[in-house]
Amino acid sequence: MNGPDRKTTRYVVAGGGSAGWITAAILAHFLPPDAASIILVESEEIGIIGVGEATVPLLGQLNALLGIHEPDFVAATNGTFKLGIEFVDWGEKGNRHFHGFGDFGEDIDGLAPHQHWLRLNKTGAIPPLGEWSMPWAAGRRDRFAPPQAMKGEAAQFSYAYHFDAALYAGFLRRLAEAKGVKRVEGRIIDAERDGETGLVSHLTLDGGHRIDGDIFVDCTGFASLLLGKTLGVPYRDWSEWLPCDRAAAVPSSRAGRLTPFTRATALPAGWRWRIPLQSRTGNGHVYASRFLSDDEAVAQLLTGLDGEQLAEPRLLRFTPGRRDRFWEGNVIAIGLAAGFLEPLESTAIQLIQTGAARIVEYLPSGRPDAALAAEYNRQTALEYERIRDFIIAHYCRSRRTEPLWREVATMDLPETLAHKLAVWSACGRVPLYELESHQEASWVSILIGQGIIPNSHNPRADALPESKVRTILEQRRMFLAQAAGRMPAHDYFISRTCSAREMA
Ligand SMILES: Cc1cc2nc3c(=O)[nH]c(=O)nc-3n(C[C@H](O)[C@H](O)[C@H](O)COP(=O)(O)OP(=O)(O)OC[C@H]3O[C@@H](n4cnc5c(N)ncnc54)[C@H](O)[C@@H]3O)c2cc1C
Q1: d(CA 179, CA 185)
Q2: What CATH number has the domain bearing residue 182?
Q3: How many angstroms is it from 336 CA to the middle of ligand 1?
Q4: Which residue ranges does UniProt annotate as crossing the membrane (predicted)?
Q5: Which of 14, 83, 164, 472 is the right S-S partner for 139, CB 3.0 to 4.6 Å?
């Protein structure tokens, strides 16, 4: 049956990168098979972007929801575990700090631990705040165990994964196909719109094959074929705040012990990533082309490798920002087709997950609705903006002296971020808005980690005798260090539970 009486909604997912396959898997999982048919079109000839190897803990929730067995997933994707990100040379050269997936422990006398740390920091020497982060206690020792293997405060953290992007796409494809998603191979050359409604009615593939649908999910990557090209939804360019617009990526052979964290090292015109996988290391240099040539960027990337270079470097160009709207008519864009923020906090796959979940939430009947589209767009825009602000916060108070860093240190900030930083500066608290991905502990770890110390802390922290606070903090610090010392080495944990070699 065709037309409005048809009971099954035909979802067409255009594109088979991480965005396409995650979206297809989520739709197939949540939508009853008799209410939805899901077709995914992708072109092997065009391929996928093939970067995107570090994640945030939300991925574990998706895996659990989709019934993915963690050891199988990690082994199949050459994966490793990630407790957070080590930042090197951010704020100023020589600085090191860690953004772990966890907080700094329970409140003391009703106040967050960092308030007490700020008080003690004023009066005398105190170890870096990161010493009260369980992820860092484990990460700095190259150790890993899941929180369920730990006890008390040592169990209060979460974790994410690093994986091989190409293997991940294949893994997702097998999963989604097993859930009933039908894959069509071919290059989309046209998207036809209905003359009356303006809705997209079908895609035409190279060779003439036609794919009809009711809802089209645009996962065509930076091409944004449906939302951007066909519907002409404009792109909001955020380069005034995020000047990096290029990346060079290269794999190198594995060197030394497996670190259970991503490393992000600030460089004169950007920063480099280091992502440890079981058999190799992923490296990349994200930079601002206004301040550095491609050749120089590649040279800096190759100079800093800690293993043997395994391939020619790949160059990628991007414009930081987002589409004005994500859902227009019967098209919803997910992934790079919807927007892109530099991968400093590994948030792109998270945005794919939340975008796809939002489709299920706001399109339950499979019929486009203006009010639901508006709500989808409102929430998604906020989510992008919150992450944007968090990433800008890594740059905007830097004391580095190279031209890029001087420029970002004096730029006008988005109002939402300027307000946050003003409150932080006045009292050491971070006001959180609707749809924040990063909670206060994450902001605190970035701000204090970079040496952005507020003028004042909460005066209630002064109520406790200083010696008592020192004792509590020292006991906690020792407890975390000892707990981390009892964890297995990250390498060993992987070799025992999810070795990629066992799968080969
Ligand atoms: C330098 C860099 C580093 C990154 N690092 C991270 C990270 O560490 N963590 C993270 O979460 N994210 C990261 N990302 C983002 C991440 O790579 C993407 O969000 C993720 O891979 C999803 O990409 P995608 O599926 O939207 O696009 P793509 O992978 O580009 O997929 C697009 C799909 O559309 C298909 N397609 C396009 N045009 C057509 C057509 N005409 N016909 C048919 N099919 C078509 C392609 O074949 C492909 O299947 C990074 C991105 C960049 C640029």
Answers
A1: 18
A2: 3.50.50.60
A3: 6
A4: 12-31
A5: 83
